[in-house]
Amino acid sequence: MKLTDTKLIDELANGAHDGDGDKVILVEGLSKRFRIPHEKKATFYDHLLGIVKGGSYSYEEFWALKDVSFSIGRGETFGVIGPNGCGKSTLLKVLAGVLYPESGKVRIGGKIAPFLELGVGFHPELTATENICLYGAIMGLTRREIEGKREEILEFAELKRFENMKLKNFSSGMYVKLAFSTAIQTNPDVLLVDEVFSVGDEAFQKKCAQKIDEIRRAGKTIVFVSHALGTVRDLCDRCLLLDEGHVVMMGETEDVINDYMRIMETAKDKK
Amino acid sequence: MWIVEYRELIRILTVSDLKVKYQSSVLGFTWSLLNPLLLMLVLYFVFSNVFRFDEKNFALYLLIGIISWRFFANATMSSMTSIVGKPSLVTKVYVPRQVLVLSSVLSSFISSTLEFMVLVPLLLFFGVDLSLNLAFFPLIHLIYLLLVYGISLILAALYVYYRDLNQIWDVLLQAGFFLSPIVYPISIVPEKYLSYYMMNPITTILEMYRKSLLYSQTPSAASMVFALAAGGLMLLVGTLVFRRLERKFAEEI
């Protein structure tokens, strides 16, 4: 179950009394395990067959996250970096509520908008306007809220002329523009971003960067996962370095990135 | 509460499900009505010429049974795949997963309500006295919805892990069709099996539908309570099972 109720927001805000600060995201001892079975059993038939053959349920265990703890304050832009397969995306999915952790606590105070992938739920047979409504509904907005934002979204995406065109006739550029604009306008308290900023042409990218900046200044919290260390350096106040599911380091972006580069260098030398 | 928060998504998904079902055409709905009518004609022929039951208005008796059963069979069969059928809404973003099951069940519920509404002119045509007992219909229909939704939650969650569940359920549905009083009156059930037979809540619900629509009788309080208890219990069990199994949906899909 995802915790987004107002009681929790109050609770998190009141955490200031224990010197906890104004925390929007609180993660404590988070661990996520994946079981990779040697033989995938997807039906009753497979299971029955397994029992008859007497084969055991053997599987490989893989800890994508191990005892991860951190907290993010309101209005902070927080970066998560690390090599491929270090658990960044798993972490983001746990925060989004898509994956359920094996142990540990995850608390999120406020409305959360996961940008794990752009255009989730978009349907090719629906028009641009209908897709905006659909996406808004997926984000849990009411009909009136969506109606109020529709013009703004189409304006931002520069697709006003195509509002009644079916999505299947959109170019891929138009598609991502619409997706990004819709997602960004849902007015969340927390944004989870998995490297989706490089969207559209250069002018649109600039516009996106401006929008993100605007959101940051409005006091929203952003969790940013990326390989692009340059962007992380520009955007993030603090950073978390993950490797093989463990927290290697957490602190000021500049320090963490420098350390990360040094670790990478030594790893390369060893090889 | 997720139902309130995500009501817009539930509405959109239900409507699009109905659109797909009826292919956005008038004939689409006509076809879905013809199906129970044709089945009724076949069964009527067989059971009034071959078996012969002393049931007044046997054609309507059959039709009410068939329409009621269709809601159960269609809703459980289609909502079973509702989670697996929308993988991006499970793995890429968080929406309460019950939303997917509920909207699928609701779309079948609306179809069923329409089928019952077409039944009314037929009742008048065959000279059935419609009474105020008709007012019990919405209540019975809603209790039935609880029961069907509860069972659908369990099936949809299990289907994520066991993809041949639809084959098994298909067989169980066929057994259920003959273990419920759809094509025959309860009076032919042997005395010694009757107490087991009546444990099936769908039997009770079918009888209540017939009382309110066909016989101008008030459904007994006992059967109301029994059906409501069965519906509530299924909803509770369904929710608990779903909550537990939901945790690994994103990994198993």
Summarize the structure.
Chain A is α/β, with parallel strands linked by helices.
Descriptive overview:
The complex is a heterodimer of chains A (271) and B (253). In chain A, 40% of the residues lie in helices and 25% in strands. With 271 residues, chain A is α/β, with parallel strands linked by helices. Chain A has a domain of 150 residues: 3-Layer(aba) Sandwich (Rossmann fold), CATH 3.40.50.300. Chain A has a 6-stranded mixed beta sheet with strand order 5-6-7-3-8-9, sandwiched between helices. The radius of gyration of chain A is 21 Å and the shape is globular. The N terminus of chain A is likely disordered. With 253 residues, chain B is mainly alpha-helical. Chain B has one domain. In chain B, 76% of the residues lie in helices and 0% in strands. In chain B, helix 4 packs antiparallel against helix 8, helix 4 crosses helix 10 and helix 6 runs antiparallel to helix 7. Chain B is globular, with a radius of gyration of 19 Å. The chains are: A alpha/beta (271), B mainly alpha (253). The interface between A and B is medium-sized, with 31 and 28 residues.
Provide keyphrases for this structure.
heterodimer; A: 271 residues; alpha/beta; Rossmann fold; 6-stranded mixed beta sheet; 40% helix; B: 253 residues; mainly alpha; 12 helices; 76% helix; globular
Q: Unreliable runs of chain A, pLDDT <50, ≥5 residues?
A: 1-20
Q: What is the residue-averaged pLDDT of chain B?
A: 92
Question: Care to count the β-strands of chain A?
Answer: 9
How many beta-strand elements of chain B?
Answer: 0
Please give the count of helices of chain A: 9
Order of strands, widest sheet of chain A: 5-6-7-3-8-9
What is the fold's blueprint, element by element?
The complex is a heterodimer of chains A (271) and B (253).
Chain A: H1 6-14, E1 23-37, H2 44-53, E2 59-73, E3 77-81, H3 88-96, E4 103-108, E5 112-115, H4 128-138, H5 143-157, H6 172-184, E6 190-194, H7 202-217, E7 221-225, H8 229-235, E8 238-243, E9 246-252, H9 253-270
Parallel strand pairs in A: 3-7, 3-8, 5-6, 6-7
Antiparallel strand pairs in A: 1-2, 1-4, 8-9
Chain B: H1 2-5, H2 7-22, H3 26-51, H4 58-80, H5 88-91, H6 98-125, H7 136-161, H8 165-179, H9 191-197, H10 201-213, H11 221-246, H12 249-252
Helix pairs in contact in B: 2-6, 3-4, 4-6, 4-7, 4-8, 4-10, 6-7, 7-10, 7-11, 10-11
